[in-house]
Amino acid sequence: MKVILVTIIAGILGSTGRILLLELISRVRIAHVDAVKAIGTLYHGYFGHPLLRGVGAHYLFGVISAFIYLTLISFVCPAASILVTPGFGALIGLHQDMQRVFH
Known about the structure:
Blueprint: H1 2-27, H2 35-44, H3 50-76, H4 84-102
Helix pairs in contact: 1-3, 1-4, 2-3, 3-4
């Protein structure tokens, strides 16, 4: 039960970090990144609140990704502690974000 709770919290924190990082990149004007609103618009169209729906979808995908990372990392490194595994997941997610922005 503790592993599930930590994984959900890691997914939420990772999604929050990704949203803040993408917002920072837009504010500094490195690139225009409005991924959260784009996700909401992609799945629900322009009707309603695409930003709110995008945030919900972003957090849902973040938690699902955290469980996928947990599963994959536990296969590669079964002796990893409950704190090391979310750290590996965070590094993988950060690497993916940086590749998308600067590629």
